[in-house]
Amino acid sequence: MNKLKIYAPSDLNTPDLMPPFGEFGMRFLAEGDSWFTVGALNPLKNSNLLYEMRFGQTACAVNCAMPGDTLRRMAQVSRDPVFADLLAGRRKRAWDGLLLSCGGNDLIDALSVRGPDVPLDKRLLREAAEWGDAAQGAARYLSDAGWQTFGVYLKANLDHLVALRDGGPSRGAPMFLHGYSVPMPRPAPAGPKLGPWLLPSVQAYGIPPADYAAVAALLIRRLAALLAECAGDAARFPALHFFDTTAIAVTPAAPGSSGESGDWINEIHLNRSGCQKLAVPWAAAVEKVIEGLRG
What we know:
With 295 residues, the protein is of the alpha/beta class. Helix content is 33%, strand content 11%.
């Protein structure tokens, strides 16, 4: 199997570092959040999905991803000019596909919204006085109205991303989205002032620690269902493919742990073994689509 060769956008400006695109069987443009970037600073300890992708044929990717990227940043030219330039600007080319890691940071941002004057349709969690019946399980803590708003936001930004793709030579190229694994809200940051991300939200809303795991699972599965719904709407989002990683078993982190635990390097990022469990089957699904398009 062939490891995905990864280039930085700046490599395209340096003759000695310019990717030999013609030598690769597949050429991707990658964009996304920290699931495409964690590991770059400490590759001996950490990893990310791109690092662990393996293909039957040779493949390369120019990676525009940045930690903290949201769909809004990816979709708006003014917020992510490098990605836009490589897709439909001065340095545009016909990419064989787009590898995208998105939705996770949008979810985290939405979960942090809280305040006495914030209506239910503008937040994803309910205050204690608004909790549903205990028989609802973890759903008692979630705002359905807020999820509807989140879905509208996510789809609107995917609209912009599709329009950006179709504004250049990569028109109609397949866009590949992955899902996320279910994290455990816990005090495990990536470093000083870098997390945790979920724990502050569930604590702020007073959710009992015994329900942390169930709430996180429901959040991630709702996000996966939303992304799958988008991929299933070929009329609105043509050539959008979603790989549901929630169906892949990873070893969960121990509740309350503060460092690497199970398949997790910190609260929301997988370690090398966790990344491998997701990246290898996702790469196979991506290659199958590419081969199908080529006949």
